[in-house]
Design goal:
The protein is α+β, with helices and mostly antiparallel strands. Helix content is about 30%, strand content about 35%. The chain is built from five helices and eight strands. A four-stranded antiparallel β-sheet has the order 1-2-3-4. A four-stranded mixed β-sheet has the order 5-6-8-7. Strand 7, helix 2 and strand 8 form a beta-alpha-beta unit. Helix 2 packs parallel to helix 3. The chain is elongated. The relative contact order is 0.16.
Length: about 170
């Protein structure tokens, strides 16, 4: 699969909302006892087709979340959202997690769980069917979902690649 350039260049004009997906307490056993730290995974999005994820680690929860948000703002991508859903079916795999995304008709809602729901709602998708198989690790689910969203092609991109008008993409004639 060829890597496309869906990166968002500037975050200055975007109203990004951050959403905490998971927080993990990590214990390091030392000679002096146990040292606790925290790892947070966060997704940020403008609910209009822009999404990013970040991982932050620190000795306090708030600092870990702040670091994760800063990292997420550096990893933004543009996703084609077509009438509140995705333009076509897509699947992706990251680590032990496999996910499958399918467009849904209006009024269906976001049929996804946990980490996938946070990503899909942050990007602005209101109707979608999603399924995850394998590992339910939030880190791998977020990365697989964003990889699938990054592979989506808009109707305009499909029309340009085929050399036909956008209207013919949906009719198939």
């Amino acid at each position: 699969m060829a890597k496309r350039n869906n990166r968002v260049k500037s975050t200055n004009d975007l109203e990004l909302k951050d959403r905490l997906v998971a927080i993990n307490r990590v214990t390091k056993v030392t000679k002096g006892g146990r040292a606790f730290s925290f790892a947070a995974i966060v997704v940020v999005g403008n609910e209009d087709g822009v999404i990013g994820w970040g991982l932050g680690k620190a000795n306090e929860v708030t600092a870990a979340i702040a670091k994760a948000v800063e990292t997420a703002k550096k990893n933004l991508i543009k996703v084609p959202v077509h009438k509140g859903t995705i333009p076509h079916e897509q699947s992706a795999k990251f680590g032990g997690s496999s996910i499958y995304l399918k467009p849904a008709s209006e009024g269906t809602g976001v049929k996804a769980g946990g980490a996938m729901r946070a990503v899909l709602e942050s990007v602005g998708i209101t109707d979608i069917l999603a399924k995850s198989k394998g590992s339910s690790n939030p880190h791998n689910l977020v990365k697989a979902t964003i990889a699938a969203l990054d592979e989506l092609r808009s109707p305009a991109q499909v029309a340009q690649n085929r050399g036909i008008p956008v209207e013919k993409v949906f009719t198939g004639k």
